[in-house]
Write a structure and sequence with these properties.
This protein has about 270 residues and is an all-alpha fold. Helix content is about 55%, strand content about 0%.
């Protein structure tokens, strides 16, 4: 808008297309027709701006464009946030999807871990996805929660130790990150590994934790140890000892009870 106010003239067609996208001038874009397609494709694949990539994808969609190859297809679906199509692409989309998980400008990146878990992947891609999800545990809260939840849903035994290490960092600390700690407890409960039992028990009994965290840890313990983990521990009170009689050295004369011959007075007229 600022450039339009000063009547800026684009230096070339690439600048012209970018100005059209920035101003949402779809009428002008439709006038360009097929001439705009190569420039839009370049923006879609290589632009560092998330908004420009999305605008280019929307513009191409309006022009009834068809991707020429798989890389364009992946870039197109990522720009629009259409993860169902990406899941169907399988191994070929893994690298690009992992890359956007570290893109802070990609608003839908918290949805990527769950989409990766739904893919049918080869052994190499599975390992790549697992390592990427574990790396996300040490990033922002939204990505840590998304990665933790996905690791629990995947049921991968190799995720137990990384999740335990993350949860142990919050042990004994007040005002913890409630969403992250809650997700860690739930994920460890889904994995059901006994190695997490002691740590989950500590969180279930820690009064400094949020109530939601305590409940999540208790529910996870039931999955790990079985229904008996939900039963409160029985505290048996010590036996009651009979009082010890104390012998007195002085004699006490019992007090005589008063004897009344008449307990009630009756008045007769």
């Amino acid at each position: 808008k600022s450039l339009a106010r000063i009547r800026y003239k684009p230096a070339d067609e690439a600048e012209r297309v970018m100005l059209i996208l920035a101003g949402d001038d779809w009428h002008e874009l439709s006038n360009m027709g097929a001439d705009a397609v190569p420039l839009l494709e370049r923006i879609l694949v290589s632009s560092p701006s998330r908004e420009m990539r999305r605008s280019a994808a929307v513009a191409l969609q309006r022009l009834l464009w068809t991707p020429a190859d798989e890389s364009q297809k992946i870039a197109f679906f990522l720009a629009l946030g259409e993860f169902d199509h990406l899941v169907a692409l399988g191994d070929s989309a893994v690298n690009q999807m992992i890359a956007v998980m570290s893109d802070k400008n990609y608003g839908e990146r918290r949805r990527v871990p769950a989409a990766l878990a739904e893919m049918e992947l080869g052994s190499e891609s599975k390992l790549q996805v697992f390592n990427a999800l574990v790396s996300c545990l040490n990033t922002t809260e939204e990505m840590a929660v998304a990665a933790t939840t996905t690791l629990g849903d995947m049921g991968c035994p190799d995720a137990v130790l990384p999740l335990i290490a993350q949860l142990d960092q919050w042990k004994g600390r007040a005002w913890t990150d409630e969403a992250t700690v809650h997700a860690l407890c739930v994920a460890l409960g889904k994995l059901g590994d006994a190695r997490a039992a002691d740590l989950l028990k500590a969180f279930a009994n820690d009064k400094l934790q949020y109530q939601s965290v305590q409940k999540a840890a208790q529910a996870a313990l039931v999955n790990v140890l079985g229904p008996q983990a939900a039963e409160p521990e029985l505290k048996i009170p010590p036996p009651i000892q009979a009082p010890v009689a104390i012998e007195s050295t002085t004699s006490v004369t019992p007090r005589a009870e008063p004897i009344f011959e008449k307990k009630w007075w009756r008045f007769w007229r």
